[in-house]
Amino acid sequence: MGRQREASAELTALGDKLNTSSTNAMTTEPPTTVPQARWHGPQRRIGVTGGIASGKSSVGLYLSEQHALPLLDADIYARDALVAGSAATMAVLQRYGNAVAEAGQCNPVSLDRIALANIIFSDVEERRWVEQLIHPIVAKRFDVALADLSAEAVVVLMIPLLFEAKLTGLCSDVWLVDCSPPQQCQRLIARDGLTLQEAEQRIAAQWPLERKRPLADLVIDNSGTVESCHQQIEQNINGIQKRA
Ligand SMILES: CC(C)(COP(=O)(O)OP(=O)(O)OC[C@H]1O[C@@H](n2cnc3c(N)ncnc32)[C@H](O)[C@@H]1O)[C@@H](O)C(=O)NCCC(=O)NCCS
Ligand SMILES: Nc1ncnc2c1ncn2[C@@H]1O[C@H](COP(=O)(O)OP(=O)(O)OP(=O)(O)O)[C@@H](O)[C@H]1O
Predict the structure, then answer these.
(1) How far apart, in whole angstroms, are the C-alpha atoms of residue 180 and residue 193?
(2) What is the residue with the minimal CA distance to atom 29 of ligand 2?
(3) Which atom number of ligand 1 is nearest to the Cα of residue 56?
(4) Does residue 8 carry a pLDDT above 80?
(5) Angle between helices 87-96 and 2-18 (to 10 degrees)
(6) Which one is predicted more confidently, 27 or 109?
(7) Is the distance from the beta carbon of residue 160 to the nearest atom of ligand 2 less than 6 Å?
(8) Last residue of some domain: 151, 181, 215?
(9) How many whole angstroms separate alpha carbon 123 and alpha carbon 117?
């Protein structure tokens, strides 16, 4: 419990640092009407966000491969936090027991991510509990990685819950990768083999894209072809240089 309180306090402090209007960076409560915070340092920090399966990773990968930009990925940090034997994994196992333990594992026990997903995407309280455990770890990883990359002119930060977790203050530019909810659903089902109900639950766990759109600096329409998405990136990447 002490560690959790400490983690929660760290995140609240981060939220306060990034966005003075923030009361709790973890919250997924309705949006405030205050302007979103932005990073104003010398480095360009492109925050790529969107909805689940809207195409964030595809955009991030393109920026990294075609424009050789360093890519920081919140999903990878969250995944690292839940490797076998980590403190966060032990906490999750303590809370949910064998229900989330990978079958046939010895020591240290690996998590069954599908089982954990089933829990957190069907129960908002449990989702909040997992988020208060993982998000401070993710936030620290961003801090460390950004310090390491401080000499780079431009970095890309992929953060699915950028708005929900009030992390816009990490980014100088926020790009929203957009498509329709039925497309999100279709892509989720095709990519992850989810049922329609599971896909809908996951989409409902995030702010709807219509709520995120007005908060972004750039909306990339990824409802068409992959080529059309790449074209939009090319049209907007030229302005992405180190600040004067
Ligand atoms: C539940 C878990 C184990 C499922 O793992 P899985 O490998 O199936 O999915 P993955 O981690 O690749 O996430 C896929 C997408 O799910 C969405 N998602 C993940 N966590 C959340 C969440 N707490 N709320 C809403 N959407 C979420 C994001 O769009 C993300 O890009 C995992 O998503 C997780 O640990 N989530 C809690 C941590 C978290 O909030 N991560 C978000 C980035 S900080
Ligand atoms: N324009 C597109 N047309 C068709 N399929 C697409 C398009 N863009 C992405 N996809 C596919 O949709 C799926 C989701 O894309 P991607 O993994 O990039 O989304 P994401 O936002 O990173 O997902 P998550 O939120 O789960 O991390 C992938 O299978 C990807 O290949």
Answers:
(1) 19
(2) 191
(3) 31
(4) no
(5) 120
(6) 109
(7) yes
(8) 151
(9) 10
> Quick check: is 20 in a domain?
no
Please tell me the pTM assigned to this model.
Answer: 0.89
- Tell me the best of 52, 57, 226 to mutate to test the pocket of ligand 2, counting ligand atoms within 8 Å of each CB and taking the most: 57
In the reported structure, the alpha carbon of residue 53 is separated from the centroid of ligand 2 by a whole-number distance in angstroms of: 5
Q: Which residues pair with 155 in a beta bridge?
A: 45
pLDDT at 94 over 80: yes
The token duo for 172 is 């100088």
What per-residue confidence (pLDDT) applies to 158? 98
Claim to verify: residue 176 and residue 187 sit in the same structural domain: yes
Q: What is the ipTM of this complex?
A: 0.98
**Best substitution site from 191, 194, 221, 228 to test ligand 2's pocket, by max atoms within 8 Å of Cβ?**
191
d(CA 91, CA 6) in angstroms, rounded, equals 14
Domain extent for 92: 75-151
Is any ligand 2 atom within 6 A of the Cβ of residue 52? yes
Q: Is 229 in the pocket of ligand 2 (CB under 6 A)?
A: yes
Task: Say which residues have a Cβ less than 8 Å from residue 93's Cβ, sequence separation at least 6.
Answer: 100, 101, 109, 111
Residues 159 and 208 in one domain: yes
| Residues 48, 59 contacting (CB under 8 angstroms) | yes
User: Is residue 54 lining ligand 2, measured as CB closer than 6 Å?
Assistant: yes
13 inside domain: no
Burial 145-161 (b: 16+ CB within 10 A, else e): bbeeeeeeebbbbbbbb
Residue nearest to atom 30 of ligand 2 (CA): 55
> Is residue 180 marked as binding?
no
